[in-house]
Amino acid sequence: MKVLGITAEYNPFHRGHKYHLDKAKEMSGADVTVVVMSGCFTQRGEAAIADKWIRSETAIKSGADLVIELPFLFACNRAECFAAGAVDILAASGATHIAFGCESENADEIRAAAAGIVSEKDAIEQLRRRLMKEGKSYARANEKAVRETVGEYAGDLILQPNNILAVEYVKRLEYYRSKGRIIQTIPVRRRGSGYDDVNPGEKYAGATAIRRMNINDMRDYVIPESWAYLKTMEPLPDRESEFFRILRGIIMRAEASELADIYSVGEGFENKLKKEIVRADNMSELINSLVSARYTAATVRRILVNVLVGVPGRDADIVLDKGESAASYLRILAAGEKGREYLKILKKSDEAPLQITNVNKVTELTDEVGSIVLKYDLKAADIYNLISGYDVVKNSDRVRKPYIELHK
Predict the structure, then answer these.
(1) Are strands 204-205 and 198-199 parallel, antiparallel or unpaired?
(2) Percent of the chain that is helix, strand, coil (3-state, to 5)
(3) What is the pTM of this model?
(4) Which of 253, 262, 316, 368 has the fewest CB atoms lying closer than 10 Å?
């Protein structure tokens, strides 16, 4: 059986996503397609435009067979952690092929860059740390370290967001290869526009550009299934204002030492938070005041989400420093007919992790990593509902159930 794995945010599911999904299925000849999707918060540290339940249902209606949640601790994190968590879950889901979008037309170049980064891992890490101590951001220090140790082509490659993730996916797949598990890569050239771009002629736009549009303008760039729920959300919830209001109270109340214990906060950033939170009048002002050569806007946003959810560094380190597979469980968000049948096959496998469709019935999750990961999935969902103005009880992960398609 050919099992295609795709990592996505579908925030929202647009025409470029549909092209990628269909093309990947065609290239792989997949019998079943499994998507691992970010939940409430995205890799760039933003609240998703719609909740994970709506977005996963849309994915099933658009051609995916099974949607599994990418846990919050991986989903709202830098590219390396995001990609590693996604590949681990897809591998645990039995993926034989993994597809990803990229800007490069040369798949071999991506593989070569990934192989070089893996082989020069220690040298890159040493140089990256030195550059970060000099004040460079993780992304800038990493790009420069890769350029100097692997080559100019690799440095150029990871300047593009999709290529960055593509390289990280391949890096994690090399880990599985070293363990004797071969998963085929399916690089799909990105079609249409970059994250922030709009191509009105072909009706393609990046997800970031779409989210900045008014509801009516979105219609031309998203698929009908996305438009069906987006038009009911007008006006979109003002999550930024509510996020800022709650965050301001948390930071003002906390001691600097408490903030320093939050994951990815440190080296004096906690003092900067305390200083700037009383000066800023809104989220944009706060983020702008915190951005520096060391901290990009995306990094700042992720830190603020960690403060809002309350993720201590010690918990994140237990999960992210594990080194081995991050897939302690498979959290099912939606399944089509083929997806339901495939889940039955997975359940018979001795190697597949626990499938979770109802968190209230989880009794087998005894390992420390899995317990921590699930705890912050639930917290992130509650916070998302709170800042969205949704009923926190009715929309709780303890109440909502996966979308299960019974018949096409």
Answers:
(1) antiparallel
(2) 55, 15, 35
(3) 0.93
(4) 253
